[in-house]
Write a structure and sequence with these properties.
There is one protein chain. The chain has 276 residues and is of the alpha/beta class. It has two domains: 8-197, Metallo-beta-lactamase, Chain A, CATH 3.60.15; 210-275, Arc Repressor Mutant, subunit A. It is 30% helix and 22% strand. It has helices at residues 46-58, 97-104, 170-180, 199-224, 229-237, 246-262, and strands at residues 8-15, 24-31, 36-39, 66-68, 89-92, 111-112, 118-121, 124-130, 139-143, 148-152, 187-190, 266-269, 272-275. The longest helix is centred in the C-terminal third of the chain and has 26 residues, at 199-224. Bound molecules: zinc ion (ZN). Residues 71, 73, 76, 134, 153 line the site of zinc ion (ZN).
């Protein structure tokens, strides 16, 4: 253990059926030999448990007494079923509770955490930050003493997070990113991929990408008028994206269109959108 650090924060990538180019979801262990907590539980299969138990042993950590689920998606939440014998307290946000219950059924006992809540693990404070956008009740775990943010799918190491309506909301997502970049950060633990060691640059990169996409959509609507989300996605990405992610790219374009609708910048007729 590093001098001055009361806890370890261990990234445990577990194989999941997630989105290209990622093939794993990160779970995180926080704590020491006396007490620990798990953030996200991966996909529901034995391999998930094996990877996490191995990381616990290698890092001399206590068996986690609690699991924080950042959100309900199948590559983040259902793996908690693999740890029932530990009887951990399972935490999520109120706005995610119904989807989490569906994802982790038959487990029914979960506790809700509000924005700003504090959990103590091995005498270290963890601050819970509600960051909606990817999903309505998405949670982040911030460890101020280590300047580490575990961001779930708000930040991923390669590329940008998809935002899929109706659970995904682009306005909320951009507000969340603007809020996260106010934190004092040394690094971000993303939901997928390696530690992000340039946290502010990465958050700016995502914000800039989203604003560019929004402007691109407005430009295309001015040029072509009457476009569907799919037509816009084809024009924006042409053949540059992996076919397996075309659907999520379309959903993200749809999320931008909904944001522009609420801002009164575009109008919708059926499945067609045009500039106002
Ligand atoms: Zn997700």
């Amino acid at each position: 253990m590093q001098v001055g650090h009361k806890i370890k924060i261990v990234q445990v990538p577990v194989p999941t059926p997630t989105l290209y180019p990622h093939t794993t979801t990160n779970c995180y262990l926080i704590g020491n030999e006396n007490e620990s907590l798990l953030v996200d539980a991966g996909y529901d299969r034995k391999e998930t448990r094996d990877k996490i138990v191995k990381a616990i042993n290698e890092n001399n950590l206590a068996q986690p007494r609690a699991v924080v689920l950042t959100h309900s998606h199948r590559d983040h939440a259902p793996g908690v079923r693999q740890f029932c014998d530990w009887a951990p307290t399972v935490y999520c946000h109120e706005d995610e509770k119904q989807d989490i219950l569906k994802a982790i059924s038959p487990i029914t006992s979960i506790s809700c955490l509000q924005d700003g809540a504090t959990l103590q693990i091995a005498d270290v404070d963890l601050t819970i930050i509600h960051g909606p956008g990817h999903t309505a009740g998405h949670l982040n775990v911030f460890i101020p003493s280590e300047e580490v943010l575990l961001a779930g799918d708000n930040i991923i190491a390669e590329g940008t997070t998809w935002i899929g309506p109706p659970e995904g909301n682009m306005s909320d997502y951009m507000q969340t990113l603007n809020r996260l970049k106010q934190l004092k950060l040394a690094k971000i633990g993303p939901g997928h991929g390696q530690w992000v060691l340039n946290p502010y640059e990465q958050i700016e990169f995502v914000l800039t990408r989203r604003l560019q996409r929004e402007n691109q959509i407005k430009t295309l609507l001015k040029k072509y008028n009457q476009q569907t989300a799919t037509q816009l996605t084809e024009k924006i990405y042409e053949n540059t994206i992996h076919p397996s992610v075309f659907f999520v790219a379309t959903k993200t374009i749809e999320a931008h269109l909904i944001k522009l609708l609420t801002e009164d910048a575009v109008i919708q007729r059926g499945i067609h959108y045009s500039i106002k």
